[in-house]
Write a structure and sequence with these properties.
Blueprint lengths: L3 E5 L2 E7 L5 E5 L5 H21 L7 H10 L7 H8 L9 H11 L5 H21 L23 H7 L5 H13 L3 H5 L6 E2 L2 E4 L8 E4 L2 H9 L17 H11 L8 H13 L4 H8 L4 H8 L5 H14 L1
Antiparallel strand pairs: 1-2, 2-3, 4-5, 5-6
Helix pairs in contact: 2-5, 3-4, 3-5, 4-5, 7-9, 7-11, 11-12, 12-13
Length: 317
Amino acid sequence: MRLQIKWVNGWAQLHGTGPDGRRVRRALKTKDPRRAEELRAAAESRLWQADLYGAGAVVTFDECALKYAEDGGEVRYLVAITEQLTGVKLRDITPSMVRDAARKAYPTAANSTVNRQAITPARAVINYGHAQGWCGAIKVKGFSVPKPKRRAVDRAYLDALRPHLPPRLFALMLFLHQTGRRVTEGLELTPEQVSGGRAFIPETKNGDAAWAHLTPELQDLIAEIDPRHGRVFGYVKRSSLYPTLRRACKKAGVEYLGTHQVGRHSFASTLQEAGWDAKAIAEAGGWKTTRMVSETYMHPVEPQARAAAVFGKKTKG
């Protein structure tokens, strides 16, 4: 096998047959004869290596990234990290190389951004390459990101907001607070899915169906609001309720906490304060694992004050 250079309108093109019998037709994107010969020799050597040792011997990160994208992979953040690893053979890439490339791609970004926009897409490309048999599996550790402190609230928080919220939005907030369901699940609820003091959720984030039991108070509130757009609470997109919620928080003089902390986080914390264990809370709120409940969603209210109260009682006796 020997690849040939043909000139078309002054531009070099590669023609020939590979060692596997496949035809090779490729634009070399140069008008320089010397550069064209360098590219021809490199392409020929590469084809022989692939034939003798397999594609894994020659596939580079950028080539794998292109195949990954063509196969339907997520491309939103692929360009920046690919630019840093272009030309690097996939099989030679190490976790430290990925982390260095990620930091170079986003030198001033927060760790969370670097993880999301560089580490995650790099992992996806390498995992794809591993699935094709082009490289071994590696584990790339993300940069450390401190977990934000989330606040759980009690019913007094909602009562403070109530005079400043439309009835349908207050009903939605109470639904989230008392059932622990996600805001999208509440928004998508239709009148047909509510009956007998329960709300049926056909598909949760985990992919399972679930029932949310409604308190008598919540049932009465839902009965008093007219459905809109085929939805119980009348909101099609969650972005449409946040401006109203922010204004209500400002008028009520309370901290704006969105829907997740007031709902799912506070649901878990309230049940914990009532003596529930993580397993029971996970089952009630639809969490897949108790670990997530324990580490992320359970928030003891004033633990130091409660501890002091316990020891204070003991010393009095």
